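FAQ

Q: What does a record look like?
A: Structure on top, sequence underneath. For example:
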């Protein structure tokens, strides 16, 4: 092929990528940090319509990693309401698919609040109702540690859901709260999938078949998730894969994980959960410090350095992911499912 024709094809592909991001509904199933005006601008620049932001998980206090309590979570939610007030012309809290669509029609970014840890429930399932009234709609049962609900992927033992954990699954189903199992250990994950009457999700995880670490999800877990109607959000950072070290990973390796899930359970059960920290520079730095400390505390949950893949080192490079998917032959209707419609389907089923 001549260089002129090659440039023409590349130009056409670029137009297709940009048009897709402008015209399609795009939902990032997981982001972290606290957004400021610059972060919101970056999200909207890639055509993002909605994002699930982590509100509570763990905190770094006097050199120690501490799981968030009920009070700590309430304080963090309070900060989020201040953010909504400050950025009210650009973002708005979404608590349902209907409210999300209204927010998008107003030209704003819809933000869903979620927990990456069930620890704020402490030992009281009634707290779930309170958090729902405060606007939380997604709750990950555990982070890397064990809590009152079950075991996280960083624990050496995996006893599965506790009695209280089974009660929490039932209560979240009743309240219409979406259950996230991204960081849960294997048995905890399988217990929750089996116990839940509603679909559950892995908002941000990758395929263990390609990167063998407890933090990622096995084919058994992904298959069980899909059978119950759930979705897995492929995240940007891979660590060491079976084929290469973390330092050598690229956006193509991320797409390999999407390919694997699609081949395993079909395109209806994969989405994007980038796990990018998208916020003010100070908050992102603090988030990075917390994550580095957490990875040191739970080295068995991860494999390889914490290195961002080449071509997908920040949220603005999501175009590169789309381009690689298009190169591999994903049709427009399939891309729309991956980038938003699949996660929207589950949200609508669970929270209304």
């Amino acid at each position: 092929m001549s260089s002129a024709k090659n440039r023409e094809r590349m130009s056409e592909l670029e137009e297709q990528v940009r048009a897709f991001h402008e015209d399609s509904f795009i939902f990032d199933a997981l982001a972290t940090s606290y957004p400021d005006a610059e972060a919101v601008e970056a999200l909207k620049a890639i055509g993002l319509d909605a994002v699930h932001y982590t509100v509570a998980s763990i905190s770094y206090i006097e050199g120690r990693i501490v799981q968030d309590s009920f009070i700590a979570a309430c304080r963090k939610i309070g900060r989020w309401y201040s953010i909504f007030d400050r950025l009210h012309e650009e973002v708005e809290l979404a608590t349902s698919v209907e409210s999300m669509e209204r927010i998008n029609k107003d030209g704003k970014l819809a933000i869903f609040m979620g927990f990456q840890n069930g620890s704020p429930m402490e030992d009281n399932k009634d707290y779930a109702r309170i958090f729902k009234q405060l606007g939380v709609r997604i709750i990950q049962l555990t982070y890397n540690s064990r809590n009152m609900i079950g075991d996280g992927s960083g624990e050496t033992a995996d006893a599965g859901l506790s009695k209280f954990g089974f009660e929490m699954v039932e209560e979240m189903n009743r309240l219409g709260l979406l259950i996230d199992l991204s960081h849960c250990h294997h048995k905890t994950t399988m217990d929750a999938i089996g116990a839940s009457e509603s679909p559950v999700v892995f908002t941000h995880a990758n395929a263990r078949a390609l990167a063998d670490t407890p933090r990622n999800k096995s084919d058994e877990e992904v298959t069980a998730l899909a059978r119950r109607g759930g979705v897995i959000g492929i995240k940007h950072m891979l660590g060491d894969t079976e084929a290469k070290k973390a330092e050598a990973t690229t956006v193509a390796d991320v797409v390999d994980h999407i390919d694997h899930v699609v081949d395993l359970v079909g395109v209806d059960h994969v989405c994007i959960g980038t796990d990018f920290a998208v916020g003010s520079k100070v908050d992102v730095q603090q988030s990075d410090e917390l994550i580095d400390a957490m990875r040191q505390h739970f080295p068995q949950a991860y494999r390889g350095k914490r290195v961002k893949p080449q071509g997908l080192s920040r949220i603005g490079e999501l175009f590169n992911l789309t381009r690689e998917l298009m190169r591999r032959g994903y049709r427009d209707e399939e891309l729309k499912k991956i980038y938003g419609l699949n996660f929207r389907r589950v949200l609508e089923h669970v929270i209304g």
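Q: Is there anything notable about this one?
A: The mean pLDDT is 95.
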